[in-house]
């Protein structure tokens, strides 16, 4: 499944800046960054639940925001890209 992870971490404090780095590293471990605080992750349900637990452990629910968009069937999902960045197509053949 395709999981879209979006977050907004309050970075006004040193602790907030550390949270932001930890949240980004957790997302980078399982997906690709498509914008500064947006990741696309091609993962299964167990991996999604593990990532969600890790992110909820990192963020401050009083000052930060975390949104997870689960796209169960990527064939029905349309993504239109504009601009410099081009995402990796997880369903395309891998060419080395």
From TrEMBL:
EC numbers for this chain: 3.1.-.-
Any one of the GO BP annotations: maintenance of CRISPR repeat elements
Oligomeric and partner information: Homodimer, forms a heterotetramer with a Cas1 homodimer.
GO MF term list: hydrolase activity; metal ion binding; RNA endonuclease activity
Gene: cas2
Names of required cofactors: Mg(2+)
Pfam families xrefs: CRISPR_Cas2
Keywords associated with the record: Antiviral defense, Endonuclease, Hydrolase, Magnesium, Metal-binding, Nuclease
Protein purpose: CRISPR (clustered regularly interspaced short palindromic repeat), is an adaptive immune system that provides protection against mobile genetic elements (viruses, transposable elements and conjugative plasmids). CRISPR clusters contain sequences complementary to antecedent mobile elements and target invading nucleic acids. CRISPR clusters are transcribed and processed into CRISPR RNA (crRNA). Functions as a ssRNA-specific endoribonuclease. Involved in the integration of spacer DNA into the CRISPR cassette.
Recorded family membership: Belongs to the CRISPR-associated endoribonuclease Cas2 protein family.
Top-level division of the source organism's lineage: Bacteria
Organism: Aquincola agrisoli
Name of the protein described by the UniProt record: CRISPR-associated endoribonuclease Cas2
